[in-house]
Amino acid sequence: MPSPDKLMKVLIILNGIISIFVCSTFFAGRLKKQLQPVLNATQKIKERDLDFEVPRSGITEFNDILLSISDMKSELKHSLEQQWRMEQAKKEQMSALAHDIKTPLTVVRGNAELLRDSKMTDGQQEYNRYILKNADRMEQYLNMLIGLTKAESGYTVHLQKIQTQKFMKDLLEQANGLAAARKLQIDAVQHNLPAEFTADCNLLGRAIMNVVSNAMDYTPDRGTV
C-alpha cells in the first residue's frame, strides 16, 4: 500500500479531474442548450425558410448574435421579395413582347406566301423559301420564349435522336439565308460525322447558328465563312 500522504495526493488529483469533467459536461450541456436558437435560426436560413421568429437565449452574447441574425433575415427576405417582383415583371414584359412580335411575323409570312404563288425567278423563289422557313423558326423560338416566361423551373432540355444529314442540311439552309443578304459564301466541310446523335435539336441549332452569325458579323461583304 502507498503511504497515506501519497494516497491523499492521488485522491485529491483524481477528485480534481472528476470535478473538472463533471463541471465541463454540465456547462457544455447548458451552453449547447443556449446555443440551440442560434443553430436553429441559421438552419432555417440555410433551408430558405425566412418566415420564422428568431427566439431568445439566456446568454447576453448569444442574444446579440440572434438579434443580428433577425436583422439579416428581415433584410434578406425584403431583398428576395423585391428581386422576385422584378423578375415577375420582366417575365410579363417578355411574354407581352413575344406576343407583339407575332403580329408583324404573321404579316411577313402572309406576304411571303403570296409571293410564293406569284411568278418569280429561281433565285427569288429560293430567297422566298428562306423567308418562310425562318418565319416558322422565329415563331417556334417565340413560343419557346413564351413558355419560358410561364415556367417556374426554366427551360427543360429535350433530348432526342437526330439524323445528322438532315440537321446539317437545315443548318446550311439557315446559314445560306443569312449569307445571301450580304453576298457571303458558306464553306461547309464535313468529316466523319455519325449517322445520328442525341441532343436537344433546338438548343444545339441555336448555339451553332449564334456562332455562324457572329462569324458573319466580322466577315467583309462578299467574303467567305
Give me some keywords for this one:
mainly alpha, two-stranded antiparallel sheet, 2 strands
Descriptive report:
72% of the residues lie in helices and 4% in strands. It is built from five helices and two strands. It is mainly α and 225 residues long. It is elongated. The protein has a two-stranded antiparallel sheet. The protein starts with a helix and ends in an 8-residue tail after the last helix. Helix 1 runs parallel beside helix 2, helix 3 crosses helix 4 and helix 4 packs parallel to helix 5. The longest helix is centred in the middle third of the chain and has 57 residues.
TL;DR of this structure?
The chain has helices spanning 4-46, 60-116, 122-150, 164-180, 201-217, and strands spanning 160-163, 196-199. By secondary structure, it is mainly alpha-helical. It has a two-stranded antiparallel ribbon with strand order 1-2.
How do the helices and strands line up, and which of them pair or pack?
Elements: H1 4-46, H2 60-116, H3 122-150, E1 160-163, H4 164-180, E2 196-199, H5 201-217
Antiparallel strand pairs: 1-2
Helix pairs in contact: 1-2, 2-3, 3-4, 4-5
Alpha plus pi helix count: 5
Strand content: under 5%
Sheet/helix structural class: mainly alpha
| Largest beta-sheet characterization | 2 strands, antiparallel
Gyration radius, rounded: 35 Å
Number of strands: 2
Record the strand order, biggest sheet: 1-2
N- to C-terminal distance: 101 Å
Provide the low-confidence segments as ranges: none
Shape: elongated
Residue-averaged pLDDT, rounded? 81
H and E string: HHHEHEH
- Determine the fraction of residues in helical runs and give it as a percent range: over 70%
